[in-house]
Amino acid sequence: MTTAALESTGVPFLDLRPSHDPVVAAILEDVAALIESNAYINGPAVAQFEREFADFCGSPYSVGLASGLDALRLALLAAELEPGDEVIVPAQTFVATLEAVTQAGGRPVIVDVRDDDYTLDVEAAEAAVGGRTRAVLPVHLYGQMADMRSLADLSERHGLFLLEDACQAHGATRDGLGSGTVGHAGAFSFYPGKNLGAMGDAGALVTADDALATRVRALREHGQTRKYEHEWEGYTARLDTIQAAVLLRKLPLLAGWNESRRSAAQLYSDALADVGDLTLPAVAPRSEPVWHLYVVRTADPSALADALAARGIGTGRHYPQPVHLATAYAALGYAAGDFAVAERLAHESLSLPIFPGITDAQVELVADAVRGFFAGG
Fold first, then answer.
1. Which of 92, 184, 235, 272 is most buried (CB neighbours < 10 A)?
2. Does domain 3-15+253-374 have CATH number 3.90.1150.10?
3. Average pLDDT along the chain, 377 residues, taken 10 residues at a time
4. E strand segments, the chain
5. pTM, whole model, 2 decimals?
């Protein structure tokens, strides 16, 4: 596409078509076969996807679930979180991280994030450990892993359950460790816009703990270990067969899609270095992010977003309200000023377009528009 054509069409914040084009014909065939088989619930594709996703992550077990929230919540329930048990969570995250804790009966204890990689501040987490602390729930934000070596050490010293929120980090690594595989369990979301996305809601839990995997499998289906034998009170949280079929077609392409994101992120970082007041995303040493989002910081992200929108360029705000200031969690007693880094991120952050198949020309168009904004053009 020519520069003039690009300028006339703009750049969407997210375009799923380039990643769907290679698989859509096969997916339609799979759906037709599924209709013939009537295996809509717990069909063969579910178990096959669980095996293949476990292999991708380098984990012994994978349990397919209805969403990333289900993966987080059922993991905490399977770990026998008790009412009032405290779970340390970061102040910069999507609200589902806290929902999982409260819906499992626990109390979120929020701590700030680091100002470099935006993930859980390990020293702050250490200071927050108390007599009721039962678990630590780091988030691999925007596709970059938290410092899991240090968090694993903290959890081991204090006897805490370590659950990774890897919902934005399919395939990320840090210090040679893979996302979702360092803690006792790792939760993934396959929401359509994720690095590995279904065509609807879906999720999975990976773990090396056979007993934990067994219990989560039961909890996802009314707590039954055999049909009509209910050992625990459970839920309807299964991975639909149709979504498993979609994910099976997409999974072999995920590594390539992640490389596409890395390439786009590097282009942005090169093109936007020393532009205006932008703070570009940092990459922690020995970290290989998968760039679920490319988030820049600026004093007035709304003004920049408006300027880009005027040129047909989509952007996103992740997350403009820190979770500790959400009305839903007012009862936790936090106030403005409690978590300075997270509050700055909420005020300053803007997400630029990044997705598998985004072209160099599209990235350059976005970068040119950003430079033009700061140049006053």
1. 92
2. yes
3. 67 97 98 96 97 98 98 98 97 98 98 97 98 98 98 98 98 98 98 98 98 98 94 96 98 98 98 97 96 98 98 97 97 98 98 98 98 90
4. 61-65, 86-90, 107-111, 133-136, 161-165, 173-174, 177-178, 185-189, 203-207, 224-226, 229-230, 287-288, 294-297, 349-352
5. 0.96
